[in-house]
């Protein structure tokens, strides 16, 4: 029997995805190349490589092309931290300072600018759940919405400036929080701190822990914090959107940031991966924590991670500080490492309540829909991810192809 019939997907409608991406994004030079995978009912029912992975060398995208997944690192690191939770090493409501003493005296921004901040004590201590849900009060330096963001940029928070996660933690401890933990949601370096927690609690480096506890068990052979020399020919080039003209090369595969092992292992955005590798991770979530005969997390832990953990119990619109492009805000909550769809009508996108998703800075995206037994991974390399609406468009195209 035809696999599409078994999976309940229309072969003709799946073809629309390729035509849409080719005509709207590749023929118009918006994207250089894309790779799309759709998994349903136990099988990869659609895999489409379009365009080039490296236009300077005229190399086409292939199924084994390696991509910078940036913030799609966050769900993987969140799962890794929850493995330690399952072993009883911490509770979600544990204060972060119990494990990271540098965070013992964090204060909240009131007014002023770096280095002359006026601050106040937080209403309560930052917890590990706050880190997993981006309700910690931490921030990112890429945005320009606050004086705290400016301070992140001035000090230089991130792998470009600090040599280790511990150095990053020490720098963060000198800056105020955007808000008292639990009061709002703000996309931030929180998952980088989750990575540091893994190191502190496990006594292992983050890369070794991920390899031993996630990648080896899921057969994710091409996922890591850099690309070994022998595989650099499979790493896609990374591009920056240009208002006029072709996308501009900003990270060459052979000489760029991912050609050597970094000293700061970013749990928030440092991984590279492939379609097959990341789909195995999605399969594990879809299978309630198992892959083949290997148990990664328990079903109950996956259920806990998939709940809406926003303190308001509402959607991101009600609590988010500023806007971020990796997800819609209306009708979307946030779990332990993932966005959670809580109201498709409010979000104005097709999907099922309880679907999990996130994306990366180079316009990559994934989502997992347990109701439809569906996972989708979309990979490309164009920064920033705010320029095009491909994530919502792809949802429409994929769900329109469901026949049963």
Structure description:
The chain is an alpha+beta fold and 404 residues long. It has 2 domains: 3-70 and 205-400, DD-peptidase/beta-lactamase superfamily (Beta-lactamase, 3-Layer(aba) Sandwich), CATH 3.40.710; 82-202, DD-peptidase/beta-lactamase superfamily (Beta-lactamase, 3-Layer(aba) Sandwich). 29% of the residues lie in helices and 18% in strands. The chain has 13 helices and 17 strands. It has helices at 3-7, 11-26, 73-86, 128-133, 147-155, 165-172, 190-202, 206-215, 275-286, 299-305, 316-319, 344-347, 390-400; strands spanning 33-40, 43-54, 59-60, 67-68, 108-113, 116-120, 238-240, 248-251, 272-273, 290-291, 294-295, 332-334, 339-341, 356-359, 365-369, 374-379, 382-383. An 8-stranded antiparallel sheet has the order 3-2-1-16-15-14-13-12. The protein has a 3-stranded mixed sheet with strand order 8-7-17, with no helix packed on it. Helix 2 packs antiparallel against helix 13 (390-400), helix 3 packs parallel to helix 7 and helix 3 (73-86) crosses helix 8. The protein is globular. The mean pLDDT is 95.
Helices and strands in order:
Layout: H1 3-7, H2 11-26, E1 33-40, E2 43-54, E3 59-60, E4 67-68, H3 73-86, E5 108-113, E6 116-120, H4 128-133, H5 147-155, H6 165-172, H7 190-202, H8 206-215, E7 238-240, E8 248-251, E9 272-273, H9 275-286, E10 290-291, E11 294-295, H10 299-305, H11 316-319, E12 332-334, E13 339-341, H12 344-347, E14 356-359, E15 365-369, E16 374-379, E17 382-383, H13 390-400
Parallel strand pairs: 7-17
Antiparallel strand pairs: 1-2, 1-16, 2-3, 4-9, 5-6, 7-8, 10-11, 12-13, 13-14, 14-15, 15-16
């Amino acid at each position: 029997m035809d696999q599409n019939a078994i999976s309940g997907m229309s072969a003709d409608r799946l073809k629309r995805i390729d035509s849409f991406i080719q005509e709207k994004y590749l023929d118009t030079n918006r994207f250089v190349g894309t790779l799309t995978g759709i998994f349903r009912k136990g099988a990869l029912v659609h895999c489409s490589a379009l365009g080039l992975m490296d236009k300077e060398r005229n190399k086409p995208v292939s199924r084994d092309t390696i991509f910078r997944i940036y913030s799609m690192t966050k769900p993987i690191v969140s799962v890794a931290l929850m493995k330690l939770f399952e072993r009883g090493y911490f509770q979600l409501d544990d204060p972060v300072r119990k494990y990271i003493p540098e965070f013992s005296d964090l204060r909240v921004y009131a007014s002023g600018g770096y280095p002359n901040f006026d601050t106040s004590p937080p209403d309560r201590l930052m917890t590990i759940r706050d880190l997993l849900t981006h309700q910690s009060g931490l921030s990112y330096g890429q945005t320009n919405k606050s004086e705290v963001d400016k301070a992140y940029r001035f000090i230089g928070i991130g792998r470009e400036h600090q040599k280790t996660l511990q150095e990053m933690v020490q720098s963060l401890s000198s800056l105020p929080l955007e808000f008292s933990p639990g009061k709002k949601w703000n996309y931030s370096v929180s998952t980088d701190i989750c990575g540091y927690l893994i190191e502190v609690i496990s006594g292992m480096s983050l890369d070794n822990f991920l390899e031993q506890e996630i990648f080896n068990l899921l057969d994710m052979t091409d996922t890591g914090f850099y690309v070994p020399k022998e595989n650099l020919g499979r790493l896609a080039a990374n591009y920056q959107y240009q208002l006029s003209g072709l996308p501009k090369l900003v990270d060459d595969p052979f000489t760029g940031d991912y050609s050597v092992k970094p000293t700061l292992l970013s749990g928030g955005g440092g991984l590279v991966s492939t379609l097959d590798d990341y789909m195995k991770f999605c399969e594990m979530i879809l299978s309630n924590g198992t892959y083949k005969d290997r148990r990664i997390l328990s079903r109950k832990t996956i259920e806990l991670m998939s709940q809406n953990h926003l303190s308001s119990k509402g959607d991101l619109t009600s609590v988010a500080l500023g806007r971020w492009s990796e997800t819609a805000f209306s009708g979307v909550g946030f779990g332990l490492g993932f966005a959670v769809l809580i109201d498709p009508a409010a979000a104005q996108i097709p999907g099922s309540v309880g679907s999990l998703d996130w994306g990366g800075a180079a316009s990559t995206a994934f989502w997992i829909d347990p109701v439809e037994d569906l996972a989708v991974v979309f990979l490309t390399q164009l920064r920033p991810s705010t320029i095009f609406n491909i994530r919502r468009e792809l949802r429409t195209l994929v769900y329109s192809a469901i026949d049963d």
